[in-house]
UniProtKB/TrEMBL annotation:
SUPFAM superfamilies: Thioredoxin-like (SSF52833). One of its GO terms (molecular function) is glutathione peroxidase activity. The keyword Secreted applies. Its EC number is 1.11.1.9. It is an enzyme of class 1 (oxidoreductase). This is glutathione peroxidase. The lineage of its organism: Eukaryota, Metazoa, Ecdysozoa, Arthropoda, Crustacea. The gene is GPX3_4.
Length: 112
């Protein structure tokens, strides 16, 4: 949980007044923080991780949840692409994802 703040309203205040600040109002729905790994992970991440091949089998130092499992999400920039029926299509490692890689997959899903 890198983003400071507890709950969507507190995080939104950080966006408005600190980073980027200046009264910035994002045009998106901001949800509360949720766990992506461990005993308290949100069921959506259990579903996504079970439906897509994992991208890495190593663990970074400093992780503090339990239990650690192969297939866990290792960094907040890891992405999942979901098709229009709600089925997970692909999972992208944060160091390997590029605009070209994900654009081709998005276009393939849009054309399907």
């Amino acid at each position: 949980m890198q983003e400071p703040g507890v709950g969507a309203s507190e995080i939104m205040n950080g966006i408005r007044h600190v980073r980027p600040g200046g009264g910035f109002e994002p045009k998106l729905t901001l949800f509360d923080k949720t766990q992506v790994n461990g005993d308290n992970e949100d069921e959506i991440f259990t579903f996504l991780k079970s439906a897509c091949e994992f991208t890495d089998d190593t663990f970074a130092s400093g992780l503090n949840y339990s239990p650690m499992r192969v297939g866990d999400i290792h960094w907040n920039f890891e992405k999942f692409l979901i098709d229009k029926t709600g089925k997970p299509y692909s999972r992208y490692h944060p160091t390997l994802i590029t605009t070209d890689t994900i654009s081709a997959d998005i276009n393939a899903l849009l054309a399907a």
